[in-house]
Amino acid sequence: MCPATLLPEPMTCDADGLRDIAAASAGAGFPTFSLWSFYATNNGVDTARTMFDDAGVAVRAVEAATQWTEGPEAAVADAELQLDVASAFGADLLLACTMAPTMDAARATEGFAALCERASERGVRVAIEFLPWSAVPDLATTWQLVQESGAANGGIVIDMMHWQRQPGGPNLELLRQIPGDRIPYVQVCDAAANPSDTGDYLTEALTARPAPGQGCVDIAALLGVLAEIDADPYFALEVFNAELAARGAPAMADELRRATRTVFG
């Protein structure tokens, strides 16, 4: 579970909220987190770790390194906090992304290589999540960055909504050509068949994602290709949905468990 998905206001999480979403996630059968790092640092890493231990939740991944497209120095400086949080929770996977609309590809590649090198010293893999509105909008761009970085611990995050909405649509043909160990993380959700009327992709992504199996993503096809390439990713729910979140974390987590079973069995 990405715990932010259980909150009506995902950009804000106090200690009470953190405790509630940890209990709700574990209670619904999701005992691991892909954790936004500021959820821990804003409430105290030791406090968060105690809450998670009490709930029976482990942290598998930490999000997110965001400055790597600016070059090696910025990449490493930005990564230190993320890697400290990962080390504190025993996570071995760091998500990287960029919100910037443009980038210098050569500098971004150097930055990602430096980020991966620093992460490797901590035993952490780094995976890029492509965002359709950003300078890294699709699987092809992401795979090129990973390949050209030369980083053995570099990989790709597939978010099912972004997978569906990437320029050109789902790219199963390219995915078949990527070694499975380069796909260490998949974010599970769905996507509406028709984009939001507002045309604001980011708002839609943070408020109106369908639960898995309730949208237009061909999840079975995606899972089939991941199996073909022998990928064994960490799967975590990231269903930002304001209507579901308004029901409260326990009810939303239970609903997501029911939806997930229809897709994964």
What is the compact description of this entry?
46% of the residues lie in helices and 14% in strands.
Helix-strand makeup class: alpha/beta
Number of helices: 12
What would you report as the Rg, rounded to the nearest angstrom?
Answer: 17 Å
How would you write the strand order of the largest sheet? 1-2-3-4-5-6-7
Q: In whole angstroms, how far apart are the ends?
A: 17 Å
Shape annotation = globular
Summarize the helix and strand pattern as letters.
Answer: HEHHEHEHEHEHHEHHEHH
Low-confidence stretches: none
Main sheet summary = 7 strands, parallel
SS elements, strand count: 7
Query: What does the average pLDDT come to?
Result: 97
Helix content: 40-55%
What proportion strand?
5-15%
Describe this structure in words.
46% of the residues lie in helices and 14% in strands. The model has no long low-confidence stretch (mean pLDDT 97). It is α/β, with parallel strands linked by helices and 265 residues long. The protein starts with 14 loop residues before the first helix and ends with a helix.
Describe how the helices and strands are arranged.
Elements: H1 15-27, E1 32-36, H2 37-41, H3 45-55, E2 58-65, H4 72-89, E3 93-96, H5 105-120, E4 125-129, H6 139-149, E5 154-159, H7 160-165, H8 172-175, E6 185-188, H9 201-207, H10 219-228, E7 234-237, H11 242-245, H12 249-264
Parallel strand pairs: 1-2, 2-3, 3-4, 4-5, 5-6, 6-7
Keywords:
265 residues, alpha/beta, seven-stranded parallel β-sheet, 12 helices, 46% helix, globular
